[in-house]
Specification:
single chain, mainly alpha, 0% strand, transmembrane
């Protein structure tokens, strides 16, 4: 918990992924509302502000998906679906719910090497 803020900070890869997925979806919704104001009422400022926020959240979502897929031991296709879910509005929440329902947001108890562990091994062997 952040001192004095009352906000709980996620303590797992799945928790961070969940937080960013929901924030990305909310920023998408905010951008859609801002677009309605721009094209319906002629108020373009909201798109400028929400466009920047959504761009940052979109980037954060892609980065967090690339960071967590290895420790959560996602298969390639799970990662691909997570990345594709960043494009349609609110699909990141659908993916987060889908992944959570299948236990993909919890770290498995396994001694098997992660994706990045395998990459490191291959690179070491090539040297």
């Amino acid at each position: 918990m952040l001192i004095g803020s009352g906000v709980d900070v996620p303590r797992s890869y799945g928790g961070w992924f969940r937080l960013v997925a929901i924030a990305e979806a909310l920023s998408w919704a905010g951008l859609l509302v801002a677009m309605a104001f721009k094209y319906g009422l002629g108020w373009p400022l909201g798109v400028t502000v929400m466009g920047s926020i959504h761009g940052a959240m979109f980037t954060a979502y892609v980065v967090i998906a690339l960071v967590v897929f290895s420790p959560l031991r996602w298969r390639f296709w799970t990662l691909a679906i997570a990345l594709v879910a960043s494009v349609p509005p609110l699909a990141t929440v659908w993916f987060e719910r889908w992944a959570n329902g299948r236990g993909l947001l919890t770290e498995p108890d396994s001694d098997a090497p992660t994706f990045w562990g395998r990459v490191r091994y291959v690179l070491k062997e090539l040297n």
